[in-house]
Please model this.
Amino acid sequence: MKILFFGDSITDAGRDRSDASNGRFGAGYVAQVAGRLFERSYTDYEVINRGISGNRIVDLYARAKEDLWNLEPDVVSILIGVNDVWHELSRHSGVELDRFEKVYRLLLEETFIRLPGARILLCEPFILHGAATDADFAGFSAVEEYASVVARLAGEYKLGFVPLQRAFSSAAEKCGAETLLADGVHPTVQGSVLLAREWLRAFDAYLR
Model:
């Protein structure tokens, strides 16, 4: 089973672009998921990381042919949305909510056509209080609206959905936000473990 992870820096996590070593998974949740899957079988899973730091939904769509469709995965996992808000707050180059939904929908519908047998999981974008978010947390709260779009698309198209905000918020109450997300956006090792756990739970339920 070939599983491709498509997203921004949370997925990228410093991956080796050469794909020449184990560093190709990056240092984030993709590596954690890969490790858990390889515990189940050394040979049944192929994991591909195609996250790129800074990406928005429009960037995923622009590179979908090269980094998604041409690779013909059996399972596609998409995590996107924070930069669509963050880039608007920091440099006015974000993606408005209605356009986010239109482009996300276009990406999905073209993927259905090009990869008709693929199973698709949509991951909920998430934030916590932290160095990157606290200067304008009210602005970052718009991520919740983008997360609602992702949940709605997953339901409409009967795709897998990985809920993440509640898991991060609940864990943060116990151990502190900074333990999970280094700056309110990017997962620490602990945050990556949490994300991988929630992803695998949704993956197993969806493919059951």
Q: What stands out?
A: The mean pLDDT is 96. The domain at 2-207 is CATH 3.40.50.1110 (Rossmann fold). Strands lie at 2-7, 46-51, 75-79, 119-123, 160-162.
